[in-house]
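Handoff note, outgoing to incoming analyst
You'll be picking up this chain. Sequence as last confirmed:
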Amino acid sequence: MLIFETFLQYWHIILLFFIVAILYSSVGFGGGSSYLAILALTGIVFTQIRTTALLCNIVVVSCNVFLFFQQKKIDFKKTIPLILFSIPLAFLGGMVQIKQQFFFILLGFTLFFAAITMWFSKQIVPSSKKNSNSKIARNASFGAIIGFISGMVGIGGGIFLAPLLHLTNWDTPKKIAATASFFILVNSIAGFIGQYASPNFLIDWNLTSILLGTVFIGGQIGNRKSNHFFTPIQLKKATATLIAFVSIRILWKYIF
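Most recent structure output, in case you need it:
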């Protein structure tokens, strides 16, 4: 009965999560930034926002990682340096106790930066070319910084990592998508564990269970209809506009 009442109360959020899961999974991402943007406008307790977004990320991107693993698109030799420091730092980021105002200011700037990177990032590496001289130290630093921010805010970090990898000619676009999916998964898990270990951990399992079921179904549809809805560039542009709008609203409210 409680679940039915929760569904009626948050039906609009559930519908948006369903749409986001379909669109993002169709191009290999989890949708964490959009989940955060949606939840940030609902009045839900901020500590719950981070946890819910990470769990939804995990559900959606797990299927992507499984498919990429079957296709042997994940180069673990190059990926391990990226996650070596990102996992513990995502855990630490999740454990950090922050106040509501600081969280929303950080979230606002993070979403705004994500919107900019999503808008301007392009698939600039031809599918036949890659940089074989990927530096371990550089990969580790990328992963560490993105992992910590991701754990604090409640995202997987793929929206920051993928543009960086494209700009540095890290590998082919398909392998970058596979790496970003794996990165999102492990960091979302680490961030969630860190938040669970925090004294401020809070979650509404009635709403979260509905959202998890919703994004799972949406993710399955998106995986099977890959690239049938929008191209990655079209999705990036539309999502960047939405996230930029939400980030400006959040910053205006909590700074001014």
